[in-house]
Predict the structure.
Amino acid sequence: MKYFFDTYAVIEFLKGNKNYIKYFEKGGFITKLNIMELYFYLLREFGKNEAEKIYATFASYVMEYGEDTMKEAMEFKLKMKKQKKDVSYTDAIGYVLAKKNRIKFLTGDEEFRGMDNVEFVK
């Protein structure tokens, strides 16, 4: 089974969190927004050369989405806000995209703990 990788999950994997290794063995999916967040993190923590190498690896995991997904994601974000949960735009799009494609959303972000279609890992 493949998963949609939240940026949180990718960073934990790169940090060597053993709980994430099995999820990355078969590949998965991210959006350009996730890869943007990842690139920023890598630039800050490791510099441009390392950021470029890792970016190249994850660029092949990018899943495209359309306006309908974007709109559904903003409805989801608003719903979560009403529940006092702070979900980023990137996470909202990733979660909705994962549900639409019938793949699990892999994260350790507390805002998603116990939610439908989420593989929550710490």
Q: What stands out?
A: The mean pLDDT is 97. The domain at 3-120 is CATH 3.40.50.1010 (Rossmann fold).
